[in-house]
Amino acid sequence: MPQPLRILLVDDETVRAAMVEEALGQEGHEVICHLQSPASLNDMVARHAPDVVIIDMESPDRDTLDSMALLNRENPRPVVFFADQHDPDSMQAALASGVSAYVVDGLVPSRVKAILEVAVARFDAFQSMRQELDRTRSQLAERKRIERAKGLLMKHQDCDEPQAYRMLRKLAMDRGQRIGEVAANVIDILEGLEKGQ
Amino acid sequence: MSMSHAPERSHLTLGFVPLLDAALPIVAREGGFFAAEGLDVTLSRESAWSTLRDKLAAGLLDGAQLLAPLPLAMSLGLSGPPCDTLAPLVLGRNGNTLVLSHRWAQGMAAPYDDTPGGRDPAINARGFAARLPGRGAPRPRLAMVHPFSSHHFQLRDWLALGGLDPDADVELVALPPSRMVEALELGRIEGFCVGEPWGTQAAHRGGGHIVATGAQLWPGHPEKVLGVTRHWAERHPTTLTAMIRALIAAADWLTASPDHRRQARDWLALPPYLDRALDHLPTLPLGEAPVDQRFTALRPDAGQLGAVVEHLARQLGGSLDRERIDACYSPVHVDAATPRGGA
């Protein structure tokens, strides 16, 4: 069993950070989370002396790490940019997922690769989770819109709910639009009328 | 533009960092100069120079606003994996300020005022050195934006004017430009060297004093450049020419009238670009002391990178390949785009 590594995780997405932390913890590593991004990252690195820093590609703190890799000559554990030119595929995968990593000089590449793969998998999983959430949210919003349009139609056309729904469906078919789009249109027109009164 | 010269690629994504010298790409887009060259350009705001570098190298961006030393550092493999990168156009000259907190700046002259301290940057630097605590006490922390930036090298040069060793007498850290003012106000750093509008913003908000400028230390230095990979440039020569022409047209328009600079300021203040960071500037100040921001003389010249090359050579512990520097900052692309030397 290889020695566990100390990993510093810099990520503003708290849910994603928790996912990565759990997954790396299960592999036996010690994960230190750094959720906010103040100027104290230098102190964090100095205090915890991590073997690996995993950081969100979009984080403004990346330049701080880049600089530490080059300037901290007296630091016994310099952080150097992980640039494995012999393995461009894993670098591309990390980049596409938004993971970047800094590791101490001399760490066995295969161990870094394993950690990177875990982080990339969690970043990807988080991305699909968020897309799913967005989809659910927009479906919910659409359902609310249809209800609102039905209510307005019932009032203006003095009809019942099934009739109002049939009207919306017919409009959608005639125009070749989705029923949600037609509902938004109906709301615009009927609410405009109400305001005009 | 004749059809035979249609760009190989009409939709481009260019990366930028929210700074005043992102002006040319923003003006070229908002003012229709890219469109006039048949280019549909998306500008992608990035929060770190390392991110711009990595996205450019990986082909996720077609081009980017880069710190002038970065294309050479990328080509030499000093910053990220080696990636042959070109700087076909200068995007801005000067623009940097050196700002210190009240405590450290007390009694110092403002750059270019009529006192000797205003004229000679060494006087403020020696004043700073005189205030340093003795060995063993905590060193003041000064920030710059990236190890391969003129800000880093200018800060080192200024400290050296005061007889200081930048590696031993102070602690140098890198912070994104947009975080400098807040870090100074919160007392996390004692000073910084950064591009506009952040230096004048710190002075305007009262958190710091401008004690030197990049224009004083390296007058007229190329500060930002357009960066493209050699691979990209070779595959898209007509697109590159069109991009250069649009950026030069934007610069010509910008310098033509004060009205244009006010209009440009309003474009830059749009939320996708610099947003509220320009609140203290009623217009784009060009060529004004002490910052002396300029968008002229866009033709790159490797000879003007002298100070950068010296710092890089010292970092490498050797000399740099002259041919590589010349290739990196070659004016051939500008000359191809402007047959009569319009840049």
UniProtKB/TrEMBL annotation, chain A:
Domain ANTAR: 126-187
Positions of modified residues (4-aspartylphosphate): 56
Keywords of this entry: Phosphoprotein
One Pfam match: ANTAR
Organism: Halomonas koreensis
Name listed for the protein in its UniProt record: ANTAR domain-containing protein
InterPro entries in the record: ANTAR (IPR005561), CheY-like_superfamily (IPR011006), Sig_transdc_resp-reg_antiterm (IPR008327), Sig_transdc_resp-reg_receiver (IPR001789), WH-like_DNA-bd_sf (IPR036388)
Keyword Phosphoprotein among record annotations: yes
Response regulatory domain boundaries: 6-120
Automatic annotation (TrEMBL), chain B:
Subcellular location: Endomembrane system
Keywords: Cell inner membrane, Cell membrane, Membrane, Transport
Stored Gene3D superfamilies: Periplasmic binding protein-like II
Keyword Glycoprotein included in the entry's annotation: no
InterPro entries (UniProt xref): NrtA/CpmA_ABC-bd_dom
PANTHER family in alphabetical order: ALIPHATIC SULFONATES-BINDING PROTEIN-RELATED, BLL4572 PROTEIN
Name recorded for this polypeptide: CmpA/NrtA family ABC transporter substrate-binding protein
Organism name: Halomonas koreensis
